[in-house]
Design a protein that fits this description.
Elements lengths: L1 H5 L9 E9 L2 E8 L14 H5 L3 E3 L8 E3 L1 E2 L11 E2 L9 H6 L12 E7 L2 E3 L3 E3 L16 E3 H8 L20 E8 L14 H15 L4 E6 L9 H10 L3 E4 L4 E4 L6 E7 L4 E7 L1 E6 L1 E3 L3 H8 L26 E3 L9 H19 L11 E3 L14 H5 L5 E2 L7 E2 L9 H5 L5 E3 L4 H11 L8 E6 L3 H10 L8 E6 L7 H9 L4 E6 L10 H19 L6 E5 L5 H17 L2 H23 L5 H4 L2 H11 L1
Parallel strand pairs: 8-19, 10-17, 11-12, 11-17, 12-13, 24-25, 24-26, 26-27
Antiparallel strand pairs: 1-2, 2-7, 3-4, 5-6, 9-18, 14-15, 15-16, 20-23, 21-22
Helix pairs in contact: 4-5, 5-6, 12-15, 13-16
The protein binds FE2/S2 (inorganic) cluster.
Length: 625
């Protein structure tokens, strides 16, 4: 930290918050709010005289609230920068700090939040994690029984610069416990709370156990675990060392902790899975190894930076295997536990990787961007006519569309990733997508349904997941009927309702729209935009006279070849159950209503190249008539 602070090219804005990010890769403008410290940074020399005279004590979050701190303080002794700040919510304005500061005159109660703007080429998000609050698990009695503490609290107690100068003591009586139980997976691997494994708890618990064993050789130490996970280099050896040192490992998740109100000793009830029986341990202290969870403001920052989050709430990487430190927004990289729980070696490795990815951007004169971007037809955009719209901007997960009154929507191409959601959502068909234009997709629909359309299942699949699922069904030799025909687009967000209607107008027997599972979409919220749209399709079809059972939505990952084959088989069976004559008749009956609905779209200039086709000219004439 000190090296970073001294580096001539590094400026640290501590006690600050990112409030706004505009621009794109290589050209970001970041607004940062510097919170008022009520201490002038350049004048404070970190001597601490102010804290010594401050009469107000408040809980110290760095010490896990075990010890107090003053209302004017630094977060911890090694803080960088070592500049004091006043906790204005607790300050009583006695001004003793002003006196103590003397000639330095660093205290300034008139400070207000200050906003600074930075021009940067790339951004690294390294916001870390928080720990789960075990008080929500009533059976463990955290917050009720004084001698049930968290592993972080145990860390502070055993730290020589901690509140007890390294002496591990029971909160109930200040005595060193003779026995301790350490409970693993508190809040993690638990379907009630966090389903994921927090990854590093096994190792820090074993470390704490060995440290306690070295300091207090007579202490009886038991670790209660579901599975010990030691996948890192040298980790298994470390675990074996703990076993050899006499640390007891019992496999089982405790069901209940109770307390003797007189001694404040604790009784841990657990099913020992090796013995196959319920046992009760009496210990003098319990430490809970709590889950790592996302920082509280992860959601706020994800909307500021256009980042997506996985179901666990941590920031999602662009691709878990191929681009694990890139975020879905170009030029924004992820490092450390902000992306998911990880230990120190993994965090350091990812931090170095993120730094080098960011440096690539800074050292390049030019940068290749996605060629598959959205394109606005200004004459169709009603915003240019002064009317209120902006639906495209709302659908864009990358904030790549600017809509200003009196101007056509403007796509910032360097920010557009080409999901196609805006093109599908625009109610005036004023947007299309390069390389996946409406005309190109309609041309594919036409060709795939040219012969015996009522026997076909037309499948719209997203490039990243369901197309891979179909591919994997083939390469894995899963059998499924041969009457499906696929059209690939980049994201399910691109699957315009008009494509579905056009498929039925052309007599498709059934239509399947498929994309990634919600958490896997490569375009942040693309799948969500699509899912909302698809939920309206059955009603539209019903109104137009098409049996909604001929339409299906499925989320299929690239690994789910078996699911793809199953869905096509089921749809094929369903299709076979329909009377072909009746199916054709249904299409004929519905066609005028569908054509009426599609008329304006078919007349748009971006459909013009398609309409030059002979057959389509006929359609055009019919439609116009
Ligand atoms: Fe597959 Fe968005 S990329 S649904």
């Amino acid at each position: 930290m000190v090296d970073a602070a001294r580096h001539p090219n590094i400026e640290i804005l501590a006690y600050s918050e990112v409030t706004k990010v505009d621009g794109y890769i290589g050209n970001f403008r970041v607004e940062v709010m510097k919170k008022p410290r009520y201490v002038i940074e350049d004048r404070c020399n970190g001597c601490g005289e102010c804290a010594r005279v401050c009469p107000i004590e408040v809980p110290n979050s760095f010490e896990m609230d075990i010890a107090p701190r003053k209302a004017i303080d630094v977060p911890h002794d090694q803080a960088v920068p070592l500049v004091y700040a006043i906790d204005i919510d607790h300050c009583i304005r006695c001004y003793k700090c002003v006196e103590a500061c003397g000639k330095l005159d660093a205290i300034d109660f008139s400070q207000e939040p200050e906003f600074v703007e930075l021009d940067v080429g790339s951004i690294i998000v390294a916001t870390g994690f928080e720990t789960f609050d075990p008080a929500v698990i009533p059976e463990y009695g955290y917050g009720v029984y004084p001698n049930v503490i968290t592993a972080m609290e145990l860390e502070r107690l055993s730290n020589s610069s901690g509140p007890t100068v390294g002496r591990v003591v029971r909160p109930s009586d200040g005595k060193t416990p003779k026995s301790i139980a350490m409970i693993q997976c508190v809040g993690s691997r638990d379907s009630r709370f966090m389903e994921y494994c927090s990854g590093f708890c096994c190792m820090y618990t074993i470390k704490n156990a060995l440290l306690l064993h070295q300091t207090y050789p007579d202490m009886d130490i038991t670790i209660l675990y579901m599975d010990i996970r030691t996948p890192g280099k040298g980790y298994e050896e470390f675990y074996n060392r703990a076993r050899a040192a006499g640390i007891r490992f019992i496999r089982g998740r405790p069901s209940q902790i109770t307390e003797d109100p007189e001694t404040h000793n604790l009784f841990v009830e657990v099913e020992d899975q090796e013995l196959g029986e319920v046992i009760e341990l009496e210990v003098e202290m319990v430490s809970l190894s709590t889950a790592a969870i996302p920082q509280a403001d992860t959601e706020r920052l994800s909307s500021v930076l256009a980042l997506s989050r996985s179901p666990s709430g941590f920031y999602m990487e662009y691709h878990p295997k191929l681009r694990p430190v890139d975020s879905p927004s170009d030029g924004v990289f992820l490092a450390g536990a902000a992306q998911g729980p990880k230990d120190i070696p993994a965090s350091v490795a990812q931090g170095s990787a993120a730094a080098s990815r960011a440096a690539r951007v800074l050292t390049s004169d030019t940068w290749e961007i996605e060629p598959i971007v959205a394109k606005v037809w200004p004459e169709l955009c009603i915003s240019a006519q002064g009317k209120k719209c902006g639906i495209c901007a709302q659908a864009c997960p990358y904030n790549a569309i600017i809509v200003e009154p009196g101007q056509p929507a403007q796509i910032i191409q360097a920010k557009c990733h080409g999901c196609g959601g805006c093109a599908a959502e625009c109610p005036h068909d004023a947007i299309t997508q390069d390389h996946f234009t409406d005309a190109q997709i309609v041309a594919q629909i036409r060709e795939l349904l040219r012969e015996n359309p009522e026997e076909k299942i037309l499948v719209f699949m997203c490039h990243w997941c369901s197309y891979g699922g179909a591919d994997s069904a083939g390469t894995s030799h899963f059998e499924y009927p041969s009457n499906s025909r696929g059209i690939r687009v980049m994201c399910s967000a691109r699957m315009d309702q008009e494509f579905i209607l056009e498929a039925f107008r052309r007599g498709a027997g059934m239509v399947l729209v498929s994309g990634c599972h919600p958490q896997d979409c490569h375009y942040i919220t693309g799948q969500q935009v699509a899912a909302k749209r698809f939920s309206r399709v059955p009603r539209t079809l019903e109104r137009l006279g098409i049996n909604p059972e001929r339409f299906r939505v499925e989320w299929i990952s690239a690994a789910e070849g078996e699911k793809y084959a199953r869905v096509i088989t089921e749809m094929s069976e369903k299709l076979a159950s329909f009377d072909k004559e009746e199916l054709r008749a249904e299409t004929e009956r519905a066609r005028p209503a569908i054509e009426k609905r599609l008329r304006r779209w078919m007349m748009t200039p971006h459909m013009a190249p398609f309409l030059k086709d002979e057959e389509e000219q006929e359609v055009e004439k019919e439609v116009m008539a």
